[in-house]
Amino acid sequence: MNVYEQVTTRIMEILETGTVPWKKPWTSSEGPRNLISKKSYRGINQFLLNCSPYASPYWLTFNQARQKGGSVNKGEKSTAVVFWKWINTVREDDESGNESAIIKKPLLRYYNVFNLGQIDGIKAPVEEQPVNPFSPIEQAEQVISNMPHRPRIQYGGDRACYSPTFDHIKLPNQEAFKSPEEFYSTAFHELAHSSGHASRLSRKGILEPSYFGSHDYSQEELVAEFGSSMLCGFAGIEQQTLENSASYIQGWLKVLKGDKKLAIIAAGQAQRAADYILRREPTD
């Protein structure tokens, strides 16, 4: 039994016995927020801004940047932030129009913001960052550095994600993770996602747009977490991360109505992803 099979078997055993709730593997800091108001962005805006290719958590409109004495760097593109605006409309209850009422309807609007990293002339506020001791693990470092056609990796912020559009990975700072093993497990998860890019394995879960919680999205999360666990097994750190990985997988299986057949399918795709990252010939 190879390391992939050992990890998959162990995960399935944990799923059968039940797992503890999934725990976020890094210490959270505040997410993306407006530099002037200090208010955090919410909903889909948090996701969009977290997965942008910039390290700073601070954002401003063009006018806010100018008012602060800064200037947007030439050629920089803005990012849209959406919000709902409630407008008054008149509803007529019958054709004669004898009775009417004013009701409020939501209207989706947007405005554009720039990251502080796109702006000159404004100094970033000094803020405390969560710091945990971080000692690189050589075998795990080699997995990352040896991946062929590796996407760009950027550190900072409060979210781990992979952007197929920009083909880049964002991770919190290494010192924000509760242990080096948890950092590598998270990094491997995003590397597994990136293996599905059109320039690599061309996996459906990455190539085709899908919404959060959909079947394709959920299965791609299974692929990435199985892939992460397999890479952790290769690096010899799976014992410290396997239970949390199983909890994460169990959470997505609940979305998929507990269909463990999908877990096996995802494990097969994860094996191909791990083979690609490790520059191995596929074993099936």
What does this molecule look like?
It is a single chain. This protein is α/β, with parallel strands linked by helices. The protein has two domains: 3-28 and 129-277, no CATH class; 33-120, no CATH class. It has nine helices and nine strands. Helix 1 (3-17) packs across helix 8 (238-255) and helix 5 (180-194) packs across helix 7 (215-235). It starts with a helix and ends in a 7-residue tail after the last helix.
Which features does this protein show?
284 residues; 9 strands; alpha/beta; single chain; 2 domains; 3-stranded mixed beta sheet; 40% helix; 4-stranded mixed beta sheet
Furnish the topology, listing elements before pairings.
Layout: H1 3-17, E1 33-34, H2 44-50, E2 58-60, H3 62-67, E3 71-72, E4 79-92, E5 100-115, E6 119-120, H4 138-146, E7 152-155, E8 161-163, E9 168-171, H5 180-194, H6 204-207, H7 215-235, H8 238-255, H9 260-277
Parallel strand pairs: 1-2, 7-9
Antiparallel strand pairs: 2-5, 3-6, 4-5, 8-9
Overall strand count: 9
Shape: globular
Mean pLDDT rating: 85
Order of helices and strands: HEHEHEEEEHEEEHHHHH
Class by SSE composition: alpha/beta
Radius of gyration: 22 Å
By DSSP (H or I, 4+ residues per run), the number of helices equals 9
Distance between the termini: 14 Å
Largest sheet, spatial ordering of strands: 1-2-5-4
What count of structural domains? 2
Strand content: 15-25%
**Biggest sheet features:** 4 strands, mixed
Poorly predicted regions: none
The amount of helix comes to 25-40%
In short:
With 284 residues, this protein is of the alpha/beta class. It is built from 9 helices and 9 strands. α1 crosses α7, α1 (3-17) crosses α8 (238-255) and α5 crosses α7 (215-235).
